[in-house]
Amino acid sequence: MPRPVRSPFHIRYAGSWLALGLLRLLSLIPMPALFHAGTVLGDLLRTMLPSRRRIAERNLALCFPDRPADEIRALAKENIRNTARMLLYSGFVWWAPESKLRARVTVKNEAILDRIEQQGTGFILLAPHFLALELGGIFLSLRSPGVSVYQRTRNPVLDRSMLRARQRFGGTMYERKDDLRQMLKAIRGGKGCYYLPDQDPGKRRAVFAPFFNVATATWPVLGRISKMCGAPVLPCATYLLPRGAGFEIVIEEPLQGFPAGTQEGDAAKMNAAIERCVERAPSQYFWVHKRFKTRPPGMPGVYD
Which residues make Cβ contacts (< 8 Å) with residue 254, sequence separation at least 6? Predict the structure, then answer.
C-alpha cells in the first residue's frame, strides 16, 4: 500500500512554513542587495558543505580539462555563490507581480519564439539545469501558458508552494510519474513544453552520450516526445545577470536534424546543445549535482 501523503499543515512542517515566510520577506528586498548577501552566504556554504564544493570542482575539471586548477576552483566558488544568490531570489521568482518580473527579465532572440508560435504547431523548449531555470518557465508562461513536467518533492509544504508558483500565470504542470498523455496532447494542439532533460536517470533508463567529451548517462525521452508530437526543439537557457540586475532568457533556433533516428544520436545532439548554453556562463550550471554518477559498464566512478 502506498504511504499516505501527510498534510502540509502537520506540525512537523512548521519549519517549512517559517522558511517560506522568510523567502516571502526576502522577495521584498531589492535584488542587488540579495546579490551581495548571496556572495556571503555562498562562501559560508562552501565552507560548511565541502562535499558539494568537491563535486562542483570535479564536474568542472572533467568538463574543462584544459583549464588550470586555480581557474576550476574559482569557477566552483562562483558557482556556489550563484547557487546561494538564486536561493535568495526564490521568493521574487515565486511571488513577484507580473510588472516586477517584466522589469527584471529580458528575452534574447524572442523573435524565434514568435515565429514558431505563429506557425501554430507545438514546440519544446530544451531548458538545461541552470540555476535560474525556475524563473524561465514561470516568465515564459506569461506570453503563452504551456506545459511542463515536474518531480514531486517529499515535503508537501514546499511541493504545494512550488506548484502554485509554477502555474500562477496559466501554465500546467504534470508530475513525472503520472500519465503524460494529456501533456502530449497539449503539445500536439500547439502548446509549448518547458522540458528539463539533463539529470542522471540511472543505469536502467539511461543511454550514454558525450557531454563535454565525458560519457554521460542521459534521458532518451526528448527525441521520442519531439517525434510523437511533430514538435521542434528550441534550446532555452536562463541566466543570472551581474550584480542583481535580473535575468536573461536566451532562445536558440530549433535543433537541426532532430530527432536523429536513434536514442544515442538524439542524446548526443541534445547534450551538444546544452554544452553551448553552458559555455556562455559556466559558473551558472547546476554543478553541485553528481551529473556523472552513473558510469558506462566497466568504467570506474568519478567521485570520491
Answer: 116, 123, 232, 233, 234
